[in-house]
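for the writeup, i need someone to sanity check this before i put it in the appendix. the sequnce is what the collaborator sent (i think, or maybe the updated version? ugh). structure was predicted straight from it, no edits. if anything looks off just tell me and ill rerun, i have time this weekend
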Amino acid sequence: MHPVRQHARVLTAALTGTAVEFYDFYIYATAAALVFGPLFFPAESQSAQTMLAFLSFGLAFVARPVGAIVFGHFGDRIGRKSTLVASLMLMGLSTLLIAFLPTYAMVGWVAPLLLCVLRFGQGFGLGGEWGGASLLAVEYAPKGWEARFGSAPQFGAPVGFLAANGLFLVLGLVLSDAEFKAWGWRIPFLASALLVGLGLWVRLRIAETPAFREALSHKAPPAVPIATLMTRHFGAVMAGTAGAVACFAIFYLSTAYALAQGTTTLGYARETFLAVQLGANCFFALGILIAVIRADRTSPRSVMLLGAGMTIVLGLLFGPGLTSGSLALVFLTLSAALLVMGFVYGPLGSWLPTLFPVTVRYSGISLAFNVGGIVGGALTPLGAQQMAQWGHAAQAGWLLSAAGLLTLVGVSLARGQSAAA
């Protein structure tokens, strides 16, 4: 196959599959912020229902490291391609089944139990997705283009977010509140079946990565990659985990947490706030583009350090901007946050692989990325929601500063790590 055509197919596979996976993940985040509280949990108070919905949302972040270990094992032993197909199928099936769930009013406690089981399945599948998609792109990249190729899965994030929130926005415009709460929220979960089919079709048409084939030609893969990883590269895992925290914290505070606050405590109309978030999403894509071009000209590490410093500053401005009472300031706050996120997320796909040898690379970057997700993507929104309930919503952004500091330390300490076997 001609190199240009092969590279186009690989980048499409990395982008499309990850966009599908993140679409699935984001529609849960949006539904959790908008409707899952009253639909699936006991009627105690609105804030308690929202907190329980976010707890179910955070469950996937517990599942993701488990998925990272399992899919990383097979990704390092049998290859990137087959593992990516399996992760996409699991994620897609879990998402589709959510569309058919009964509510709490129908079956009582069985409803949240089933929701949590499927949410765990979503997280388990996504645990093996991002690492494999990043390796697919980076291990095919021409020299000097690693960050730009590695950004293909990263661009899947804003694409998936655009599709998810865009569909919820359209549904909100054409359906009444009663129709949306009764059945309209199920449509995005049903639509995921079409997107998963597209992602599978693209991924089944690519070959295994050159780096993995070359590594296999020299020696057999480790019998238990996770054991080799944790005994020989534990420091790299810890540094990589810290390095991934800031991007998760920014994203989920700017999307799920901001949406929940905006449509309840702050009193904005649902469609209005979704439209604001869609506009801010454009700055997310712009931030990724600027960051990866700079990363290939300098280094992914230097851009990650810059992004971490920007995140610390962002945290001081996020809470006051979100709670300002001005929709224009809310838009500027979310746009700035997602632009900054591009600097800690865009180069991540090319920075993390440099910390690990090929034979344990799938396990290494998947585990670091997903454990970082627990801290940044699960604990941070829960902490912010709790602070808001205590009347400290304006200080919730301080959690972003803490996440930025953690990423700054992690990337700085990773300087001495090597991808040598």
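Residues 3-204+223-416 form a domain with the Growth Hormone; Chain: A; fold (CATH 1.20.1250.20). The radius of gyration is 20 Å.
thx in advance!!
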